[in-house]
Write a structure and sequence with these properties.
This protein is of the alpha+beta class and 163 residues long. Helices cover 15% and strands 45% of the residues.
């Protein structure tokens, strides 16, 4: 087992292995295969502190900031993370109804139309520091609104009735 290494920039080349797995080749000759990139801070750290886990779940390396990698390595890591953290992006709210304090939403996302329930909107809808809104439905599926101001006016009213 190799000890943990930090990747701060171009000292390693990262290539795709299989879908969400990557191989890392350090310029000192060490090569580690079949690592799975995961965010240490999945909500707030989209491109910083990405851990690379081996097949047994052990941490082999940490990428401090994806933006500092070689361009091809950066794209590889971002594609793997996007595949692993596939969260539908809400483009439009079609309908929202409430019955017995349970909200039923029908939304249009970048992956099609979805209908889901929100049992407790106070804990299930979170506005993040960067303005994104994360929504967790009754089945623990997650949805994201990247920018509320980019939604049409009707959708904005449904998500935030106070505006």
């Amino acid at each position: 087992m190799t000890s943990r290494r930090y990747i701060d920039g171009p000292e390693a080349k990262i290539t795709v292995n299989d879908g969400i797995f990557v191989d890392v080749e350090f310029y000192d000759g060490l090569k580690i295969e079949m690592l799975e990139p995961k965010r240490l801070f999945p909500i707030s750290g989209l491109t910083k502190y990405i851990t690379l886990l081996d097949s047994e779940g052990n941490e082999a390396a940490i990428i401090r900031n994806v933006d500092n990698l070689l361009p091809e390595s950066r794209e590889t890591v971002l594609r793997c993370l996007e595949e692993y953290y596939m969260i539908p992006k809400i483009r439009r709210l079609i309908n929202r109804t409430e019955k017995f304090r349970i909200w039923l939403w029908t939304v249009e996302t970048d992956r099609g139309v979805h209908t889901f329930e929100i049992i407790n909107h106070i804990i299930s809808i979170k506005t993040l520091y960067d303005g994104r809104i994360l929504i967790k439905d009754a089945n623990d599926n997650r949805y994201e609104i990247p920018d509320v101001s980019a939604l049409d006016r009707r959708s904005q009213k449904l998500i935030r009735p106070d505006i």
